[in-house]
Amino acid sequence: MRLGLAGCLAAAALAASGAVLAHHSFAMFDQARKLPLTGTVHDFQWTNPHAFIDLDVPNTTGGVDLWKVELNSPNNLERQGWHMHTLRPGYKVTVVINPLRDGAKGGLFVSVKLPNGRLIEDPTRKFRPGGPINVPEAQPSH
């Protein structure tokens, strides 16, 4: 019985550590750059821990590239006025992102202009205009 309880506790700790490790830093995004992307919503994934916009963006060869845009969690987005149907496949939108530093086709959500002209911005940025989000402030040395 004791080994069974220890095994269960070890499994629970391992599962919890995976959830913690799954959440990442925002250092992978170049928050000094803003890249506008105009395209068609391929999919809007209302999932934890982050929602995603999959956007088909025309490229220079006449094809389309799939871009993955990371947003906040659905819980936070809902408090900011979003809902799971704010974006639908087929919507023509312009999304502004902080692109991935490695050049992959993806980035961190800054804003989206919907087909009706409504602009939705990331409200967490209003507290740090022009500055990166989720980056600790430098503390003065004593």
Which features does this protein show?
alpha+beta, 6 strands, OB fold (Dihydrolipoamide Acetyltransferase, E2P), 2 helices, single chain, globular, 142 residues
Counting H and I runs of at least 4 residues, what is the number of helices?
2
Query: How many strands, which pairing sense, and closed or not: the largest β-sheet?
Result: 5 strands, mixed, barrel
Percent range of helical residues: 10-25%
Shape annotation: globular
Q: Radius of gyration over alpha carbons?
A: 19 Å
Task: Indicate the structural class.
Answer: alpha+beta
User: What oligomeric state do these chains adopt?
Assistant: single chain
Distance between the termini: 54 Å
Enumerate the spans where pLDDT stays under 50 for 5 or more consecutive residues.
Answer: 8-22, 134-139
CATH class label of the domain at 35-127: Mainly Beta
Give me the side-by-side strand order of the main sheet.
1-2-3-5-4
SS strand fraction = 25-35%
Provide the succession of SSEs.
Answer: HEEEHEEE
Q: Care to give the gist of this entry?
A:
With 142 residues, the protein is an alpha+beta fold. The protein has a domain at 35-127: OB fold (Dihydrolipoamide Acetyltransferase, E2P).
